[in-house]
Each structure stands twice: as structure tokens, then as C-alpha cells.
């Protein structure tokens, strides 16, 4: 037997990728089931039968905090994507690999 808690998440606030990333961070605490109903993600957090109520409450609170954290990380990834790509392009252009040239040993 297991203990289930449902958390409904507004998909206008958090997208599915953020929800999945957040749930994955807690895969050692609970199993996770996800379904979508309109603009609501219905998340079922499944705890083992021996889980203490305090531990479940702590996990639920931590999961909600992780949602915000993952959402902010996604925003930062999106906002810095062009700069990261520019840095990578510059690094690869200096390596000699972009034009098919091999990297020369400095002797």
C-alpha cells in the first residue's frame, strides 16, 4: 500500500518540463504520476506506506519550492542562450575543429 497526495499545478504558471524536472529531483522521496486536464497538471506524489506525515509534508513543501527554482532556472537558460552559444562558437572557432582542421601540437 502507498500514500498518495495530489498537487494541482496551473500550467499557465509552470510548464510540463519544469514539473518533470522538479519531480525528478525527489525521485528518492516519492514516485510521481502526471496527467493534464485542460490548463492543470494533476500531479500525484506517491509515498511508501511507512512514510511519516512530517516527512510527507516536508517533501510536499520542498517540491513546491523546487518548482519555482526549476522555473527560474529555465528562464535563465532561455535568457542566456545567445550568450552561451556565442561563447561556445568562439571556443570552437579557436580549436581548429570548425573548419575541419586538426588541432596542432605546440612543439
Class per helix and strand makeup: alpha+beta
CATH architecture verdict = 2-Layer Sandwich
Question: How many β strands by DSSP?
Answer: 3
What is the topology, as strand order, of the major beta sheet? 1-3-2
Listing every helix as H and every strand as E from the N terminus to the C terminus, the arrangement reads EHEEH
Categorize the overall geometry: elongated
Query: What's the CATH class, please?
Result: Alpha Beta
Separate helix tally: 2
Kindly report how far apart the N and C termini lie: 67 Å
Strand content: 15-25%
According to CATH, what is the topology?
Answer: Alpha-Beta Plaits
The structural domain count equals 1
What percentage of residues falls in helices of 4 or more residues? 40-55%
Query: What Rg is obtained from the alpha carbons, in whole angstroms?
Result: 21 Å
Quaternary structure type: single chain
Average pLDDT over all residues: 91
Main β-sheet description: 3 strands, antiparallel
Low-confidence stretches: none
Amino acid at each position: 500500500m502507498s500514500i498518495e497526495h495530489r498537487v494541482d499545478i496551473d500550467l499557465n504558471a509552470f510548464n510540463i518540463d519544469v514539473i518533470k524536472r522538479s519531480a525528478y529531483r525527489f525521485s528518492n522521496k516519492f514516485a510521481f504520476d502526471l496527467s493534464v486536464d485542460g490548463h492543470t497538471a494533476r500531479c500525484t506524489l506517491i509515498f511508501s506506506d511507512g512514510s511519516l506525515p512530517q516527512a510527507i509534508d516536508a517533501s510536499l513543501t520542498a517540491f513546491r519550492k523546487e518548482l519555482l527554482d526549476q522555473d527560474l532556472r529555465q528562464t535563465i537558460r532561455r535568457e542566456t542562450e545567445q550568450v552561451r552559444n556565442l561563447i561556445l562558437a568562439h571556443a570552437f572557432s579557436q580549436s581548429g575543429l570548425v573548419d575541419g582542421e586538426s588541432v596542432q601540437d605546440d612543439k
